[in-house]
Structure formats: structure tokens, C-alpha cells
Design brief:
The structure is a single chain. By secondary structure, the chain is α+β, with helices and mostly antiparallel strands. Strand 1 and strand 2 form a beta hairpin. The strands form 2 sheets. A 5-stranded antiparallel beta sheet has the order 2-1-9-4-7. A 4-stranded antiparallel beta sheet has the order 3-8-5-6, with no helix packed on it. 16% of the residues lie in helices and 24% in strands.
């Protein structure tokens, strides 16, 4: 009886070891037709690669731009991005009624962004410079461009703005609704008043010529407002993806 008991114990142990076999190589093959079984094999081949330095000279004409600065902690690489932009004017734009004097009380610039990377609470600061020279239509501009070449050296900024990626002064119901994230920057009233004065400008004979300045985007850029340079001056840790700019 003891021998039988010992024999049964050994048999049970063997069955346990057999039952715990983790070999799964044949799982599924038993139900796959022989003609569908794929035989896989491995091989080794040699490949070469090389790195080409772009020197930041990447074509930069885009409808979407980035604003901010971010330093990669692993490599120490600093990414800083600002942009130059010009404004489109609708065809044959007109003011709804005659506006005279210092009536442009609110001249604002809005930078709309749909995404951001980094710290939402990071304090950022940007400066706005008005361009003195226009971009050449059809000319390719690259990321190693020097924006300061488009306005006079030592020129004061039109405005400065300190902001965060997320405006927590807004109520949660607004932020979680259809609110469009944007940065609103107040510009000097002289900018808006210049638009008004240009629109009602006349020639030496008293004939109106101002409307021709607003006939299309090209006329507006060449005669009224050449564009702006938005420059990030503070706030390492956040990058905004800006898709629309309104003045």
C-alpha cells in the first residue's frame, strides 16, 4: 500500500510538471489548413545611414506658427520660436461709417492657438514689432531668417504681453465650453487711427484715394500696415501652436 501510495504521488507530480509545460509554439497550427501555414525565417542585412546638418535652414512658409521657448533637459538643446506675419485684407474693405479723430479706442491683436506643449502655468512674455519692410511675395524664407532685418535697428516694440498657456482667470464653464484659446494684446491707438486716416485719405485735388489702400491684401500691406514680428522674450518651458492671427 505504501508502495502504491508512493507510486501515485510520483505520478501526480509528473502530471503536474507535464500540465505546466509553457511551450506554445504549436498553438493554432492544429486548426490551420496545411496550405495556409506560413513558414517564417530571419536573415541579416547591412544598412548604412548618415546625418546631414540642416543648419536651421528649413523652409518656413506656413499658415501655422509656433511661439515660445523650450529647453530639452536630456540634451540641453534650446528651441526658441517667434514669427513674422502679414495681414490679409478682404477685397474692397470699407469702414461701416465715417470715424474721425481719436475714435479707435481699442486696437487689439489676437493670437489664436489650439495646442500647446509644456507647462500651462509657465509665465511667458512676447514683444510685438511693426515691420518697416515687406516680405517679398514668392520668395522662399527659411527658419534661419533674421526677423530684425525687417525693421529699423533699435526700434521700440509696439506692445509687450505677459501670459500663460491657460488663462485661469476665465471661469471653468468658459474654458470647458466653446472658448477659443487666444492671447489678446492691446496695441497703441495710433495703429487703428492710422487705418482710419488712410481710409479717408484724399489726393491734392480732394479726390478720395484711401479706399484703394484697402482694395486687397497687397495694397493694404504696401500702403497701410506691412506686418509684425512676434518675439518670445521670456518663458522657458512652453510652446504654443498658433493657427490664426487677427488684428
Amino acid at each position: 500500500m505504501k508502495r502504491l501510495s508512493c507510486f501515485l504521488s510520483i505520478t501526480a507530480i509528473l502530471l503536474v510538471f507535464i500540465g505546466c509545460d509553457d511551450t506554445t509554439g504549436n498553438i493554432g497550427n492544429s486548426i490551420v489548413p496545411e496550405k495556409d501555414i506560413i513558414i517564417a525565417q530571419t536573415d541579416t542585412c547591412n544598412a548604412t545611414s548618415r546625418t546631414i546638418m540642416a543648419n536651421d535652414s528649413i523652409l518656413a512658409n506656413s499658415n501655422e506658427v509656433y511661439l515660445g521657448q523650450y529647453t530639452d533637459k536630456e540634451s540641453g538643446t534650446v528651441f526658441n520660436s517667434g514669427f513674422i506675419t502679414q495681414f490679409a485684407c478682404s477685397e474692397d474693405f470699407i469702414f461701416p461709417e465715417k470715424v474721425i479723430g481719436d475714435s479707435a479706442k481699442y486696437t487689439t491683436l489676437r493670437l489664436y492657438f489650439n495646442e500647446y506643449f509644456g507647462d500651462s502655468l509657465n509665465a511667458m512674455k512676447c514683444e510685438i514689432y511693426e515691420l518697416d519692410y515687406t516680405l517679398v511675395e514668392g520668395k522662399p524664407y527659411y527658419t534661419n531668417i533674421t526677423p530684425e532685418e525687417f525693421y529699423e535697428e533699435g526700434k521700440e516694440p509696439l506692445a509687450t504681453k505677459t501670459f500663460n498657456a491657460v488663462d485661469y482667470t476665465q471661469h471653468d464653464t468658459i474654458l470647458n465650453g466653446d472658448y477659443t484659446r487666444h492671447i489678446e494684446i492691446t496695441l497703441p491707438n495710433r495703429v487703428g487711427n492710422r487705418f482710419i486716416d488712410k481710409f479717408y485719405e484724399t489726393d491734392s485735388k480732394g479726390d478720395s484715394i484711401g479706399r484703394t489702400y484697402f482694395a486687397n491684401s497687397e495694397a493694404f500691406i504696401n500702403n497701410v500696415f506691412k506686418g509684425i514680428h512676434v518675439k518670445c522674450t521670456q518663458g522657458d518651458g512652453t510652446i504654443l501652436n498658433i493657427y490664426r492671427i487677427n488684428l
